[in-house]
UniProtKB/TrEMBL annotation:
Transmembrane segments: 80-98, 110-128, 140-163
Stretches with biased composition (Low complexity): 8-19
This protein's UniProt keywords: Membrane, Transmembrane, Transmembrane helix
Chain residue ranges for the region called Disordered: 1-31
Domain of life: Bacteria
Lineage: Bacteria, Bacillati, Actinomycetota, Actinomycetes, Kitasatosporales
Protein name: Uncharacterized protein
Length: 177
């Protein structure tokens, strides 16, 4: 096609340097608007001041202890069936209290240390007594025992970490803000 003298070819332009627009927020339902503040208070989020590594590690270990408790319950099977709702309620409460501890609630670390640390020690003692009575143990007892030992190790380590000097200073700072 011949080039027409009165038609100008536009020169190539520089790429658009404008930043992309952020996506528009989607409208939230009434339930989402009601639940969002409550969930924000419960879930670990931005801490001011930031939680030290000992508190973050203790939180992870409490979640590990709760998971080990679920594993113990599943490995024990039928003998614990009548106690299953109670055990699941305690483990769920432990997770919620651990979340509160991670957010800086001083009462929560005492509940975890005294309530669940002592419960973990008692459950290990009970498991050891049951295991000694039925020697040699079957596979389910060994798995439940492994879960019990993991539960206790995680709970005791988390308890120690929650009371480290850096953790104590952080709990004081969070309490006074």
């Amino acid at each position: 096609m011949p080039h027409h003298p009165d038609v100008t070819n536009p020169a190539p332009t520089a790429p658009d340097t404008a930043l992309p627009r952020p996506p528009r927020p989607r409208p939230r339902s009434h339930e989402q608007r009601l639940l969002a503040p409550a969930l924000a208070r419960m879930l670990p989020g931005a801490d001011a001041p930031p939680a030290p590594g000992a508190v973050r590690a203790a939180f992870a270990l409490w979640l590990t202890a709760a998971a080990a408790g679920v594993f113990m319950t599943a490995a024990d099977g039928l003998p614990l069936l009548p106690f299953l709702p109670l055990r699941m309620a305690v483990l769920s409460a432990a997770v919620l209290v651990a979340v509160r501890m991670r957010r800086g609630a001083r009462w929560a670390r005492w509940v975890l240390a005294c309530g669940l640390g002592a419960t973990g020690a008692l459950s290990l003692t009970a498991w050891a007594g049951d295991a000694a009575a039925g020697w040699p143990p079957d596979v389910a007892e060994v798995l439940a025992g492994a879960g019990c030992v993991l539960h206790l190790a995680a709970a005791l380590t988390a308890t120690v970490l929650m009371f480290r000097p850096a953790a104590n200073a952080w709990f004081r700072a969070v309490h006074h803000r």
